[in-house]
Task: inverse folding
DNA sequence: AGTTCTAATTATCAATAGATTAATTAAGCT
DNA sequence: AGCTTAATTAATCTATTGATAATTAGAACT
């Protein structure tokens, strides 16, 4: 093994890259924003050199703001997940003065813009495949803030009985069918690039209508269903 | 740049790895089977060394049977996709002497075993995220062999009118809702490790029942829907 | 038991990519 | 104008990993 002599060339005058000097917090935000786009497309195979190039900065600069690629990606995921729920939605979904159909249509119109978007879906799936624990947290949140409230609304819609007891997993799965079908739609669109020439508005409304029509007849049956393996 | 002299150490006696000598075709199959499992878990970031270790062979041996990792993975994907449709299903789905509900229940029971399995779902998503064109082919097949036949069955179920003309994308999306909700269920289970304590059989039946109940009321409306952007 | 064929192994190569370091440069505030 | 420090330049380390060349040995055949 040859002895390693650290020899560093002293540059005299070299062509300089145009340089923008930013406040650290600002630069950090910029990097994060770029990283979200980049990792949404490339996933874990994304390269720090390529990311820095897209950002118009040098690669070592990334390490001034983030100790490692791993940490950077983790922050990206966290942002994606935290940004995925608007606080107003809680009130909207539980507002029984609005017909459930209208609540759901309004909610999903917005949800498709924010969360069932290209960036979000891709990061979400990358994160799931990689086995980060983040998706669990997200699923739990969806259950608490979307699934369960809709279950309660369905109970109110389909039955006068006030004493159902705790929400069962069977009820939850009933509602997951609706949510899942939209998730699948977004996945087809953004992961598999499946194009359909439909009026999205109409599709959304019809899906929800159809779901609710079915629920009126079938949701009450879940009242007496015993959960077993 | 120092001249590179290819110097190879001549081993005299070295501890040998136990070696099994197999017929090429047999070894090939073995590698492929292992690769399916391996790449289903790890995706494109899977390493040839780790794969070979799992297989109990040395890494260079992979290259005796496959010219590159890329080619090996492509074969894996092709097998996964080709294996995902049983020929009997075509006849089953179009067999109008069986009630549609029963056809669908039977179909999805089997489909969940073969295609909405852990291995399949993961490879399918890896493939989609990586942007291989394979998913398109698969989606097209699903449309032809599942979506469209179900559309025709729904027409027969919900209306006496025999002159609907060609199937519209709105009708297809109506059916995709059902298929998509099952896809999403499998994704939740195998990608996000979401556990639910439900009776799967009952879940499947209820979902299909609910879908058909809704369809009876709402599918006929698609007859006159004009598709627009 | 030796010969031969070739499956499988051992030993590397070469390229990539995460991460670090030191010196230098220049943006923009006071 | 001077100072602070963000950012670049440039070089490099190190580990990983896809891929190849050279060597060894299993078993079928004579």
Result:
């Amino acid at each position: 093994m040859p002895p390693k002599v650290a020899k560093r060339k002293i540059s005299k005058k070299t062509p300089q890259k145009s340089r923008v000097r930013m406040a650290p917090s600002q630069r950090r935000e910029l990097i994060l924003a770029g990283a979200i786009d980049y990792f949404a497309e490339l996933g874990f195979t994304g390269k720090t050199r390529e990311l820095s190039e897209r950002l118009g900065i040098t690669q070592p600069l990334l390490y001034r703001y983030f100790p490692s690629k791993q940490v950077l990606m983790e922050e990206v995921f966290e942002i994606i997940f935290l940004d995925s729920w608007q606080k107003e939605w809680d009130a909207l979904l539980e507002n029984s003065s609005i017909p459930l159909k209208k609540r759901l249509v309004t909610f999903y119109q917005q949800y498709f813009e924010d969360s069932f978007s290209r960036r979000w879906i891709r990061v979400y799936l990358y994160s799931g495949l990689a086995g980060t624990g983040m998706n669990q947290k997200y699923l739990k949140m969806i259950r608490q803030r979307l699934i369960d409230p809709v279950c309660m609304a369905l109970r109110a819609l389909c039955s006068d009985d006030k004493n159902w007891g705790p929400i069962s997993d069977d009820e939850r799965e009933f509602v997951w069918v609706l949510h899942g079908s939209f998730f699948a739609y977004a996945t087809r669109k953004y992961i598999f690039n499946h194009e359909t020439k439909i009026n999205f508005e109409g599709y959304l409304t019809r899906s929800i209508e159809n779901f609710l029509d079915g629920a009126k007849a079938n949701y009450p049956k879940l009242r007496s269903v015993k959960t077993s393996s």
Chain B has ten helices and no strands. The first helix of chain B runs from residue 24 to 42. Residues 1-13 of chain B have pLDDT under 50 and may be disordered.
